[in-house]
Write a structure and sequence with these properties.
0% helix; globular; single chain
């Protein structure tokens, strides 16, 4: 089992920045990746950024966040961060941390464990 706790969401104006944190506990060594997803009202959950958790570090960004978001990991603190810059109103969503991803780290169904989510709201 892996437990995930997100923090750092909030309200920010367009063009601003936020940093999200995801602290993991439990059997994290069994996870291929710890990643960030987001879900806006009425939309499907989508990947925001992904990072491998053990071994060689690999990172993935979809086109929607590439160049604006930065994912990083601190294995000593069991924490994954998501630095979000140049935020846009369309980034408004609940952001979830997820662990797993061995069968396809860009898709939500590949992740076994999920945090409770943190709201990010970007005003125009």
């Amino acid at each position: 089992q892996v437990q995930l706790v997100e923090s750092g969401g909030g309200l920010v104006q367009a063009g601003g920045s936020l940093r999200l944190s995801c602290t993991a506990s439990g059997r994290t060594s069994s996870s291929f990746a710890i990643s960030w997803f987001r879900q806006a009202p009425g939309k499907e959950r989508e990947i925001a950024a992904a990072i491998t958790w053990t071994g060689v570090q690999k990172i993935y960004y979809p086109d929607s966040t590439k160049g604006r978001f930065t994912i990083s990991r601190d294995n000593a603190k069991n924490t994954v961060y998501l630095q979000m810059n140049s935020l846009k109103p369309e980034d408004t969503a609940v952001y979830y941390c997820a662990a797993g991803g061995a069968t396809g780290w860009g898709t939500a169904r590949a992740y076994e464990y999920w945090g409770q989510g943190t709201q990010v709201t970007v005003s125009s």
